[in-house]
Write a structure and sequence with these properties.
469 residues, mainly alpha, 19 helices, two-stranded antiparallel sheet, 70% helix, disordered C terminus
Length: 469
């Protein structure tokens, strides 16, 4: 073991063990090189312990050997998925076969970065932009264990290397843009968002324009991404972090969410409503006034949704004390928006749980402003009476049209029968006339064929032909 060797030989032995661990093995074959695999695993364990518990280990000459061992073991091209139609929400991920070794290399890398003797000025020669890019590509691994280690490693690098911070943010931005507009698939979205949450938390004020642009052009459109359920919690956290930093971003964020509000996926609607509540928990009253009307129009539609989970999640807003206080301050604007949907579904919704929740909400709103509530009730009832009257008028009109249509059809049938009779009579008359004409023609033809009488004009000596009369 390295600690057991003489102090003068420890560094050389440490280097040799690093080089020894650069040997790679095929873990797809579970029966070959078993002894060698076990030796490497034990050596990696030893290196992790040595770096964790000893000072003065990270001398300058050790950095290239450490970098080489790490890069050899973990930086690799990920194989294509065994399942081309892999769905992270339903399918089991393909785990990394060589994880017994790779896990220990990640452990070693973390201990290396966290060591009190670690010097970023030396390490930056090896942990550079190329290294970071290759790490980011590994976030697409199907193995959640590897992504979890990568998340911690990248966060440590972001904290240690100030010169790489802008580059890391830019590359994460590029990965998200490809995910939104091109591939629609990336396994490590949740982990990258988790890193971003802590990065955003450390942003200095006032926020830079690039950070605001990232929020509006990347994070908000990410709500339309496939598999939102896998990373929505981290995404919502990032959005809320931005709003806590700069409350003036609340209006564009809310309007952006309303723009991308799901039309056909109830599960997504429930997630959107949860995020809206998180935003309302940190919203300032002045910002609330700017978005209350479009926001509560959407909430009103959600309350009236026949899918009970959507309606239930929207009604739960009235269990939040801070949101209730905001509603009470602006009851004259919000109650007219919400009243129609609430009153209607209290009478018509199929789910008794929703009806009970609606009654509680109506009671709360009535207590906030009973006068306005009574006015809206009377107005709603009169509107319903007018609608019923119009409906009756429409039904009567349709009934008259149907009767008129039937009478027109009867008249048309009668006219058609008269027309057929006249046509038949005319046809008979024509046949009789044709028969009479044919007889006359026959008589004329027979007359024309009688023998002519020939007379001789003795005076002129010319024959004169006369027809027989």
């Amino acid at each position: 073991l390295v600690p057991d060797a003489p102090s003068t030989e420890q560094q050389e032995l440490f280097t040799q063990k690093l080089q020894q661990c650069c040997m790679l093995f095929d873990f797809m074959d579970s029966v070959t090189d078993l002894k060698s695999k076990e030796i490497k695993r034990a050596t990696l364990n030893e290196l992790v312990d040595y770096v964790s518990t000893n000072r003065g280990v990270l001398v300058e000459t050790a950095y290239p050997e450490i970098s080489n061992m790490i890069c050899t073991n973990i930086l690799r091209t990920l194989p294509p998925s065994d399942n081309p139609d892999f769905d992270p929400e339903e399918d089991e991920p393909t785990l990394e076969a060589s994880w017994p070794h790779i896990q220990l290399v990640y452990e070693f890398l973390l201990r290396f970065l966290e060591n009190p003797d670690f010097q970023p000025s030396i390490a930056k020669r090896y942990i550079d932009q190329k290294f970071v890019l290759q790490l980011l590509e590994l976030f697409d691994s199907e193995d959640p264990r590897e992504r979890d280690f990568l998340k911690t490693v990248l966060h440590r690098i972001y904290g240690k290397f100030l010169g790489l911070r802008a580059f890391i943010r830019k590359q994460i931005n590029n990965i998200f843009l490809r995910f939104i507009y091109e591939t629609d698939h990336f396994n490590g979205v949740a982990e990258l968002l988790e890193i971003l949450g802590s990065i955003i938390n450390g942003f200095a004020l006032p926020l830079k324009a690039e950070h605001k642009q990232f929020l509006m052009k990347v994070l908000i459109p990410m709500h339309t991404g496939k598999g939102l359920a896998l990373f929505h919690a981290q995404l919502a956290y990032c959005v809320v972090q931005f709003l806590e930093k700069d409350p003036t971003l609340t209006e564009p964020v809310i309007r952006g969410l309303l723009k991308f509000w799901p039309k056909t996926c109830s599960q997504k609607e429930v997630m959107y409503l949860g995020e809206i509540e998180e935003i309302l928990d940190v919203i300032e009253p002045t910002q609330f006034k700017k978005i209350q009307e479009p926001l509560f129009k959407q909430i009103s539609r959600c309350v009236a949704n026949p899918h009970f989970q959507v309606a239930e999640r929207a009604l739960y807003f009235w269990n939040n004390e801070y949101i209730l206080s905001l509603i009470e301050e602006n009851i004259d604007k919000i109650l007219p928006i919400m009243f129609g949907s609430l009153y209607r579904i209290s009478k018509e919704h199929w789910n008794p749980t929703i009806v009970a929740l609606v009654y509680n909400v109506l009671k709360t709103l009535m207590e906030m402003n009973s006068t306005l509530f009574d006015e809206l009730t009377a107005s709603y009832k009169s509107d319903r009476q007018r609608e019923k009257k119009k409906e009756q008028e429409r039904e009567e009109l349709w009934k008259k049209l149907d009767e008129l249509k039937l009478s027109d059809a009867a008249a048309l049938v009668q006219n058609n029968s008269h027309g057929l009779q006249n046509a038949a009579q005319n046809n008979n008359n024509n046949n009789n006339n044709n028969h009479h004409d044919n007889q006359e023609k026959s008589t004329a033809i027979s007359a024309d064929h009688e023998d002519p009488v020939v007379a001789m004009d003795t005076t002129e000596g010319v024959e004169v032909v006369t027809s027989a009369k």
